[in-house]
Design goal:
Blueprint: H1 3-10, E1 13-15, E2 24-25, E3 35-39, E4 55-58, E5 69-71, H2 75-86, E6 95-96, E7 101-102, E8 107-108, E9 113-114, E10 119-120, E11 125-126, E12 131-132, E13 137-138, E14 143-144, E15 149-150, E16 155-156, E17 161-162, E18 167-168, E19 173-176, E20 181-184, E21 189-192, E22 198-201, E23 206-207, E24 212-214, E25 220-223, E26 228-229, E27 234-235, E28 240-241, E29 246-247, E30 252-253, E31 258-259, E32 264-265, E33 270-271, E34 276-277, E35 281-283, E36 288-289, E37 297-300, E38 305-306, H3 307-318, H4 320-332
Parallel strand pairs: 2-3, 3-4, 4-5, 6-9, 7-10, 8-11, 9-12, 10-13, 11-14, 12-15, 13-16, 14-17, 15-18, 16-19, 17-22, 18-23, 19-24, 22-25, 23-26, 24-27, 25-28, 26-29, 27-30, 28-31, 29-32, 30-33, 31-34, 32-35, 33-36, 35-37
Antiparallel strand pairs: 1-5, 20-21, 37-38
Length: 333
């Protein structure tokens, strides 16, 4: 595909020879003739002088290089689109394996793939153009929307609702019981609280590998449209996550907490139960959210607090050994 065609397709400004033929995408230090590379991090700019790529995708014009440039407002977004263009995902051809176990009351849409040893329960509906990979368990009374991909060995419990264009990666469990128990001081026993709710996952959500999403005790656990959940995330019962959030690896969200829209929880963030995190909030890695956060902005630390405040406190903590030595000298004098 010619560079000028790519510029037109993705709304980029072209600098240099538009007739350059592009056949793929590669990293700066590995790209060769016919490939376009990308610069989304200024730290890698020094490698451009030695790259063998035929063109570069960037956010602003770079005067000191000779290869053609595609300049766009959101280079990382265009990079993602280029990858999808040149390296489309290869999914299995539509077919239903004779080794799959499918209930007679299940409804499978058109052009679906159901792999070996998949199980689909009673009164479950699978939309058109879905891919259910080998070893997937889908319980009774579930709904899975059009174009959804469920990768191998995912377990989807009864009553789960999954929207259109969702991707669920291997080993994930959706709809298992929430961690609900009642302790009787009188009897000195722990009683399980029956978990009778469900999980609802809206359109275009992606869920990484080995993540767990518990069903509601009553009502539902909700994952909002377009939200992206990483590997190894735990989402408790009756949690509500808004639209277009990023939930990064090893985050744990306790039950009945509400997360707003456009929220990012970085790796290993812990969120207490029965609180709210408002819209447009980012929380730094390993932070602990112990109470509701309502104002948009960036937070960090334990307990989570506004980022600038946390930085000031951290700077003081880092100086404690120095301050301690000064105090010791003062006490001796």
């Amino acid at each position: 595909m010619k560079l000028r065609e790519l510029a037109e397709k993705f709304g980029c400004r072209l600098v240099g020879n538009g007739e350059t033929e592009i056949t793929g995408v590669a990293e700066i230090h590995r790209a060769g003739p016919g490939q376009i590379t990308f610069l989304t991090n200024p730290r890698y700019k020094k490698f451009l002088k030695g790259t063998k790529a035929s063109a570069v995708l960037t956010g602003s014009e770079i005067k000191e290089i000779k290869i053609p440039q595609l300049i766009c407002e959101e280079p990382y977004v265009v990079f993602a689109k280029l990858l999808a263009l040149f390296y489309p995902e290869k999914l299995p051809e539509p077919q239903i394996s004779p080794k799959a176990s499918i209930s007679k009351t299940a409804n499978i849409g058109n052009n679906c793939y159901v792999g070996d040893f998949a199980f689909i329960g009673e009164n479950t509906t699978i939309g058109d153009n879905c891919f259910i990979f080998p070893g997937v368990y889908v319980g009774n009374n579930c709904q899975i929307g059009k174009g959804t991909v469920i990768f191998p060995n995912v377990s989807i419990y009864d009553g789960t609702v999954i929207g259109r264009g969702v991707r669920v990666h291997s080993g994930t469990v959706i709809g298992s019981d929430g961690f609900g128990y009642a302790f009787s001081k009188k009897e000195m026993k722990i009683y399980k609280v029956p978990q009778r709710g469900r999980v609802v996952i809206e359109d275009f959500v992606e869920i990484g590998a080995n993540t767990t999403i518990d069903r509601g005790t009553i009502g539902e656990t909700l994952i909002g449209e377009g939200t992206k959940i990483d590997n190894l995330v735990q989402i408790g019962h009756n949690v509500k996550i808004g639209k277009y959030c990023f939930i990064v690896s090893q985050v744990g969200i306790s039950g009945s907490t509400k997360i707003g829209n456009f929220v990012t929880l970085a790796g290993k963030v812990g969120v207490a139960g029965h609180i709210e995190v408002g819209d447009n909030i980012t929380v730094g890695a390993k932070s602990g959210i112990t109470k509701s956060l309502k104002e948009p902005g960036t937070y960090a630390g334990f307990p989570a607090r506004p980022y600038r405040e946390w930085r000031k406190i951290q700077a003081l903590i880092d100086r404690l050994p120095e301050i301690y030595e000064k105090v010791k000298r003062l006490l001796k004098s």
